[in-house]
Write a structure and sequence with these properties.
heterodimer; A: 243 residues; alpha/beta; six-stranded mixed sheet; B: 480 residues; ten-stranded mixed sheet; 12 helices; 23 strands; globular; binds adenosine-5'-triphosphate; binds magnesium ion
Chain lengths: 243, 480
């Protein structure tokens, strides 16, 4: 098992958001998480990536047999946990390609691999940029600064393509994407599906799951997973809603 | 990223890296300041009568002056009678090579990571190292001499080139200029002198490392750089100081003269001891730097200020000649209890004069950072233009950034643009970086260097690298 979440309880600013969540993810699997607004989906993503504003006050999370909760956010990232943000952050003045090179080299260093030099890195990101049909100009702009909503989301998946995580948590990556962009990004995600890589895809819409077909669908509500099923569950939810 | 990571690891908890003192027998005056001290100082240096006169006039003017209070700084009162006004290494050898330098001094340089010899050969930098008040090592002089370039200590210039010193000393910063400059004019100890003859392009960066050493000794450096018509010179000044408990006063004066068509680039990295985490100790840095640009001349000040407990400094340009250009690029960082009040003055006198100001202030901890800049456009400065950009970056919420731009425009054809911004390194930005594998400190460094890149671009390559390192050291521990 790659990820095992047991009875996870998370709170932020005195609000208990996750109230005993269980989820097991094997390598190669894609899990979709759906659920009403405010049910705790992003909170789960943040807790898994170690956001300092979220306090875990119960339960356990093991990642590849190790205690994920004991690791710092950067250590989790280096171990291969990637989160595509629901609201990607702008970092003015920091070049997008430079940022990604720093990230990739941090991960490589952690793995005991040699850091890539500028030439090797540029070659790598060129091929990944092609995968996501990213405009070259976006690579030399500041991280997410002035990017449109859709461009930001695409940039997240581009980063994932470069960093090649073992566990990718995509938080509403589809929101803000136009129809064509959705296809491109979904194709990019599908290209990254692999035997040794798992994904947790948070979404509100079946539309995305038409492209990224999940192995499992879960409903998160009131801080817990209240239902799980196969890909048909998403269709049912689409038709009937959460109640 | 790896270099900055390494740097941080090396320097984590290292406190002030350059905080050590050297045991060199010093020849030091008793504390106190009066006319007699000024005379003794002049005599010990075998100065000509006119220079003693200059000092005495300055001293008399200084006695009637008071410290400026218009700045945005909280300063503990300095007892000028408690300071000693002269200190020199006792064994002052006539040096032919580095081997002859006092081993203690050489060790100091080594600890500072300034491999003099390596620099001479590898970087092609002529180093005039100032150890305390007296120069102990001057290199490359012969090579420069072949081009007619003079690069020597101020005292040597007084001996060997008195006519040049006499002509230009005080011509840009008059001895009556301000409290600190006037004090400097009375008691300056030593410093550097540069003269580049007509049409000569100085083939290497001229570099001086300053170091404050002997205890309780205020340092009063005096630098004079004259670029004759059509000449070019790039001058680098870098400073470090040992850790001290008491506040140490530093009041330097730098004068630049760029004659018709000349270019002077003056770059500074200032890394004096900033005091400890609680604001104890640290250097008081009150500097007067000014250049005068004649017709078609250009003066560029670039500074990276990371050190000192207090920085009071406004490198300025008098754009006297038509078509002359003045530039000021500055990064000023304050952390813990540091205070900086810095900026520039661009004084447009000639026609079609142009100036550019790019100021980047970084505040962390409880640091207070003030940008103070003046752009003056005189009545006859037809077609003058200025562009100013002042950006502040805050790290944490206990620090402060303040901007005071002053404008005085007396010619309606002038064009003046001013842009300003304040931003904060947000927790969200740090988390975003960490989620990608980048540590908090690296994230801050990355954001800070992005913020400063317009200034770093102006620095000579090896200096830019140094500057980046210093920034990361001075911001260490600024995020939790
Ligand atoms: N840092 C925080 N401080 C206080 N409350 C928070 C914090 N983060 C989340 N919450 C609250 O916790 C609940 C869950 O938020 P979360 O963002 O996880 O929802 P979500 O399932 O991702 O919703 P959406 O579908 O709208 O994205 C919400 O009521 C939210 O207001
Ligand atoms: Mg959400």
């Amino acid at each position: 098992m790659l990820l095992e979440i047991k009875d996870l309880k998370v709170k932020a600013e005195d609000k208990q958001i996750l109230k005993g969540l269980n989820l097991s993810v094997n390598p190669g699997e894609v899990h979709a998480i759906m659920g009403p607004n405010g049910s705790g989906k992003s909170t789960l993503a943040r807790a898994l990536s170690g956001h300092p504003g979220y306090e875990v006050n119960g339960g356990s999370v093991t990642f590849d047999g190790r205690d994920l909760l004991a690791m710092s956010p950067e250590e989790r990232a280096c171990e291969g946990v990637f989160m595509a943000f629901q609201y990607p952050v702008e970092i003015p003045g920091v070049n997008n390609a430079y940022f990604l090179k720093a990230a990739l080299n941090a991960v490589r260093k952690h793995k005991g691999l040699q850091e890539l030099d500028a030439v090797e890195f540029m070659q790598l990101i060129k091929s990944k940029a092609k995968l996501l049909e990213m405009d070259q100009a976006m690579l030399s702009r500041s991280v997410n600064e002035g990017f449109s909503g859709g461009e930001k989301k695409r940039n997240e998946i581009f980063q994932m393509a470069v960093l090649e995580p073992r566990l990718a948590i995509l938080d509403e990556t589809d929101s803000g994407l136009d129809i064509d962009a959705l296809k491109i990004v979904a194709n990019g995600v599908n290209a990254l599906r692999a035997k040794d890589r798992a994904m947790i895809v948070v979404t509100h819409y079946q539309r995305l799951l038409d492209y990224i077909v999940p192995d499992f669908v879960h409903v998160l509500s009131g801080g817990q997973i209240i239902r799980s099923g196969g890909k048909e569950l998403a269709l049912e939810l689409e038709a009937k809603g959460y109640r | 990223m790896s270099t900055s990571t390494d740097t941080i690891e090396q320097l984590a908890n290292a406190e002030y890296k350059y905080g050590f003192t050297t045991d060199v027998e010093a020849d030091t005056f008793e504390p106190g300041l009066n006319e007699d001290v000024v005379r003794r100082l002049s005599a010990i240096k075998h100065e000509p009568e006119w220079l003693l006169e200059f000092r005495l006039k300055a001293f008399r003017a200084w006695q009637k002056m008071t410290e400026p209070t218009w700045h945005n700084l909280k300063i503990e009162k300095t007892d000028y009678q408690a300071l000693s006004y002269y200190s020199a290494p006792k064994k002052k050898p006539a040096l032919k090579s580095m081997d002859e330098v006092d081993p203690e001094v050489r060790k100091t340089f080594e600890k500072l990571g300034i491999p003099l010899i390596e620099q001479q050969f590898l970087a092609g930098v002529a180093v005039d190292a100032v150890f305390d008040s007296v120069s102990v090592a001057t290199t490359f002089r012969e090579k420069l001499g072949q081009l007619g370039i003079i690069f020597c200590s101020f005292s040597e210039a007084v001996k060997d080139h008195p006519e040049l010193v006499k002509q230009y000393l005080g011509s840009v910063v008059p001895y009556t200029d301000n409290f600190y400059a006037t004090l400097n004019s009375a008691v300056f100890s030593d410093g550097s002198f540069v003269y580049i003859p007509k049409g000569v392009r100085c083939p290497m960066e001229l570099s001086t490392y300053f170091r404050i050493n002997a205890k309780n000794t205020g340092q009063f450096e005096r630098t004079l750089i004259v670029a004759d018509e059509g000449a070019y010179v790039s001058y680098l000044e870098g400073c470090t100081a040992p850790m001290r408990d008491e506040n140490q006063l530093h009041a330097a004066v730098v004068e630049l003269v760029a004659l018709d068509g000349a270019t002077i680039k003056y770059s500074t990295i200032q890394n004096w001891y900033p005091g400890d985490k609680n604001g104890k100790g640290g250097i008081y840095n009150f500097v007067t730097k000014r250049g005068i640009a004649h017709a078609n001349a250009k003066i560029t000040w670039t500074q990276v200020e990371t050190g000192s407990a207090i920085t009071w400094k406004y490198p300025s340009c008098i754009l006297q000649g038509d078509n002359s250009i003045g530039e000021f690029y500055s990064v000023a960082t304050v952390n813990n209890y540091q205070q900086a009040d810095t900026g520039t003055k661009m004084i447009h006198l000639g026609k079609n004069t142009r100036s550019t100001i790019v100021s980047k202030g970084i505040s962390a901890g409880r640091g207070q950072n003030t940008y103070r800049g003046a752009v003056k456009i005189a009545k006859n400065a037809k077609g003058a233009r200025n562009y100013s950009q002042c950006d502040s970056l805050l790290i944490g919420d206990r620090c402060g950034a303040h901007t005071f731009p002053y404008l005085e425009i007396k010619n309606t054809s002038a064009k003046v643009e001013h842009e300003a911004s304040t931003s904060k390194i947000g927790e969200d930005q740090i988390f975003y970086c960490r989620q990608r594998g980048i540590s908090s400190e690296d994230a801050v460094n990355m954001i800070v260097s992005g913020f400063c890149k317009d200034v770093f671009r102006e620095l000579p390559m090896e200096f830019a690298v140094e500057a980046q390192k210093l920034l990361s050291i001075s911001l260490e521990g600024s995020v939790g």
